Amino acid sequence: MTIKILSAHYGASSGSVDVTAIVQAMMMHPSGNVPINNQSMGQDPAFGQLKQLRVDYCGHNGQRQTTEGAEGTTITLAPEFQAPGGLLQGVMQRDN
Fold it and tell me: Could you give the CA distance from residue 74 to residue 33 in angstroms, rounded to a whole number?
């Protein structure tokens, strides 16, 4: 799987950080899983608030895609995942 991360931002309304390099490094693992938490993102940009991760990326087909996930979940950047209606998207799952 070839994923090119265009941008990735982690945070809440009170502050966010650019985590593009962190998410790109995670794509070296073939699963494409991105756990969303302060540890994996390298810091807590909005103490006491629920954070979101937004990732803009291109998959093997070159099509630009966006996926988002909440703190405490994991997104999978899988451009070959075909959603109903033919839309390509990432997959989000809740961490337990």
Answer: 6
Residue 86 predicted with pLDDT over 90: no
Chain centroid, CA 94 distance in Å: 13
Burial of 81 by CB count in 10 Å (0-12 exposed, 13-18 middle, 19+ buried)?
Answer: middle
Q: How much is the pTM?
A: 0.78
The token pair at 6 is 């265009």
Q: What is the pLDDT of residue 6?
A: 96
